[in-house]
Design a protein that fits this description.
Layout (H helix, E strand, L loop, with lengths): L2 E5 L7 H13 L1 H4 L1 H9 L2 H9 L3 E6 L2 E9 L2 E7 L8 H14 L4 E7 L3 H9 L3 E7 L5 E8 L2
Amino acid sequence: MTLSIKPARRDQIDVFPRLAKQTILTCYPSILGLETVEGYAASGIIETYFQDHWQATTCCYTDETLIGMATRIEDRVDLMIILPAYHRKGAGTRLLQALEDQLFEDHKTLKLDCFEKNDQAVQFYIKNGWVIDHRKVDEYKIDYVVMTKIRT
């Protein structure tokens, strides 16, 4: 599998929500519950997110097929999505490394939030040098781990 990392393009704004929803609807019902996930996917929040943040988004491709994206906001990995068919095949690691490189240009310490129950993601970040800094609960009573990575 040949991977490439490229900045997002404006003409992809409509593609990003479809990819995000596919991943969210596949991976998150066991973490957040099906009703919560379906409500989130139907709310329009995902479309608005990418309209607002496409310029801060980096994309991962295999050949010319978009298989993932990650968005940075200030010192944070704000969102990272890889299609489930490409999990555990190196795409996430490659995309994360590219985003970290961008963020470390301006920041010494990086942050991200991850659903505490998403053990696969938590372990992925730990494997890539992130550490759990603390835990938090949001206004919807969802548990997160807040993770950090320091430039060495």
